[in-house]
Amino acid sequence: PGQAEMYAGLQELGVANGEDLKETLTNCTEPLKAIEQFQTENGVLLPSLQYALPFLDLHGTPRLEFHQSVFDELREKLLERVSAIALEGKVEERYKKLEDLLEKSFSLVKMPSIQPVVMCVMKHLPKVPEKKLKLVMADKDLYKACAVEVKRQIWQDNQALFGDEVSPLLKQYILEKENILFSNDISFLQNFFSPSPKTRRQGEVVQKLTQMIGKNVKLYDMVLQFLRTLFLRTRNVHYCTLRAELLMSLHDLEISEICTVDPCHKFTWCLDACIREKFVDNKRARELQGFLDGVKKGQEQVLGDLSMILCDPFAINTLALSTIRHLQDLVGQDTLPRESPDLLLLLRMLSLGQGAWDMIDSQVFKEPKMEAELITRFLPLLMSFVVDDHTFTVDQKLPSEEKGPIPYPSTIPEAFTKFLQENRIACEIGLYYILHITKQRNKNAFLRLLPALVETFSDLAFSDIFLHLLTGNLTLLSDEFALEEFCTSLFDGFFLTACSRKENVHRHVLRLLLHLHHKVAPAKLESLQKALEPTKQSGEAVKELHNQLSEKLELRKPSPAEVTETPSMELPLPTVPTPASR
């Protein structure tokens, strides 16, 4: 630090500093005497020290070192005392003491050695005087040095400044989510939805935001406002995840000041338990229904927040998985979807979640109307696919008669394709059904329904979350990649239809091939490598993935030496009788 900063503020308190000593020495006739006098006037005024200091001189200990250690010791004691004052006596008295102390010490706030004490006093004051806050805010270094408790007081009246602090964290959060979706590790065991809610809340961004908010409702509201605005601007559903994670992080810390005023708290808490189990059980379904039915007239605005909580991909994933499970149960019970209240509630919540953007955008807070055809036509259609699978399995086991085995149904009802194109909820459930059959390694059903994915509502089949899950589940069908028919249906019939217009699809296909290239027939692999070559418009990620794939394929090519040796391997081998056949 510069000389001026080192002594900043001492003069105002009538304490001599380096400048005073310089002036004294410049204007005196006997410098040594002047120095001695300056030391006497400004040293530690303890009579016993007069004899101890010459003793230290004999040991070669510089006076600076002695004074520095005394200073450090006193500062530590002072810091301890300030923290103790903040906890003792009556509230008004303790804060009065701290305010007086701040008044006396604030002029030294720029002096590096004293600054920690001033900052400590401010940290313990629930309300730092406005004038002092403005001085801190105006000085970049002071603002940086002050505790988060003081910054909260500055932020709550300066939304723009708070936004500048929060913005990089939100960018980091979105980037982290996208990195997981595009990760090169593809597995059906570990995917985007694997971490538990509690583990996710330990993430750096959620923890930092939680700390920045503290117990301050005003700051919490500001963050929620930022999230709503960004969600509206970008339609990025990861902001909805952060909305729920932040609330639950404050819930974990039992910050009742915020949790009790957020009308979504209990609903989110209940849904969080469902997400943890990846299933909505009957008891929790009734609780969630109670919250939705309990929205009173005049309080409909809460639906906007609830819809954002339900739009979180982790919530959608749980609701969709539960829906598929319910449909399978209904097949076994010979029951129609319209007769299952639990299923209707799942659809109601899916509908509310999927309608979040429209509701917040239009500011019309009412639950979206459920289309009757979804329940009376689409879901029974899905159930008929489940029945087709059961029938086919049973047929395979029956002794085949002259007419030969019954082929697997290959056509898709036109209504199914139409629903996937025109109805958002039907599309979401349809996609989850396809993930479900892929996970069951049901190749027949997968190839039958795959053509319906080329055109879906708002291109949902080409969204990152679906493709991330699909590529993971396809690893279970890895042996099928050797078959021309399977690869043609999957790549030419589905992926490549969108690669040129959607960079993310290009990335997901390359991720999949990097993982499964050794399973694909060489000729097919070569044509895919060509088809997936980056264009001038392609981003760095696509180029990098394509390079990685090309390197892997280069390593797989047999060396010239191996090529010439291969024919010798094809000579008929002499038959050696095994011991058993003798």
From TrEMBL:
Family matches, as InterPro entries: COBRA1
Protein origin, superkingdom: Eukaryota
Originating organism: Dasyornis broadbenti (rufous bristle-bird)
GO biological process entries: negative regulation of transcription elongation by RNA polymerase II
UniProt-recorded name of the protein: NELFB factor
Pfam family, one: COBRA1
Region named Disordered: 553-582
Record-level GO cellular component terms: NELF complex
